[in-house]
Design goal:
This protein has ten helices and six strands; from the N terminus they run βαααααβαβααβαβαβ. By secondary structure, the protein is of the alpha/beta class.
Length: about 250
């Protein structure tokens, strides 16, 4: 049985850091991209190079957000404003979307080199949820969500997928707005009050709280349990296997 309130009939899972061990890969790709850009900019402007912090900057500005939002939010924190460009911008272009493309190329290369590993506790929990008759969907800001699920061998566990491609096609705001989670709930014919959101990102738990979901579960992989609670998590676990117990 599952350690979830009886009112929960639908489970909405973030991907990176909740289902798969890819959050560290994303953080490394963001750091590599931003450090290279900031170093180039500092040399050009004659200013000091201040590197991207793969923990504090990642958590505060990019984790859980759509790629362009992450670029824009971090640059704004550094007082840097760039043209938006378009989603088709190449990595050579100094635009918000161009930097996003640079990051995406890096993360795809890292995933190809390292592979994708799913968290065993999360897979066990999703299987138990499906066996108990709960409906399950993945909600990710990543445009690479489908490929990551396939690489991890868990694509068949989810009835619906709302990702970066879906958000762009449907004009959905990214986390911390609740739009993508609400879209997943609609796709499963579920009311927010009967759905649980599972998130490791601060922006993600904010989205769950903003959407008034029945339960927001923070998954603490990096020692930020208190922050997850402050941003909206009803409860925090270090692994979803902790929820494999009788329902209250």
């Amino acid at each position: 049985m599952l350690g979830l309130p009886a009112r929960v009939h639908t489970c909405l899972f973030d991907l990176d850091g909740v289902l798969t061990r890819t959050a560290k890969v994303h953080a490394a790709a963001w750091k590599a991209m931003f450090d290279a850009y900031l170093r180039e900019r500092a040399a050009r402007d004659g200013t000091a190079f201040v590197p991207f912090d793969a923990v504090d900057d990642y958590d505060a500005y990019v984790d859980g957000r759509p790629r362009a939002d992450g670029v824009r939010t971090f640059l704004a924190a550094r007082g840097i404003e760039l043209p938006e460009g378009t989603p088709d911008d190449g990595p050579e272009q100094e635009t918000v979307n161009g930097l996003g493309t640079r990051k995406n190329e890096l993360v795809l290369r890292m995933i190809q080199e390292r592979g994708v590993e799913a968290y065993e506790g999360s897979v066990a929990f999703v299987r138990a949820a499906r066996a108990a008759g709960l409906r399950c969907a993945v909600v990710s800001s990543s445009a690479n969500c489908r490929d990551v699920l396939a690489a991890a061998g868990i694509a068949d566990l989810f009835e619906e997928r709302v990702d970066g491609i879906t958000a762009r096609e449907q004009g959905l705001r990214g986390k911390p707005a609740p739009d993508t989670y609400l879209a997943a709930a609609r796709a499963l014919d579920a009311e927010p009050g009967g759905a649980a959101v599972f998130e490791d990102a601060l922006a993600g738990v904010e989205a769950g709280r903003a959407g008034r979901f029945g339960l927001v579960v923070g998954v603490d992989r990096t020692g930020q349990a208190d922050e997850l609670r402050r941003h909206g998590a009803d409860l925090v676990v270090s692994d979803l296997a902790e929820l494999l117990q009788e329902r209250p």
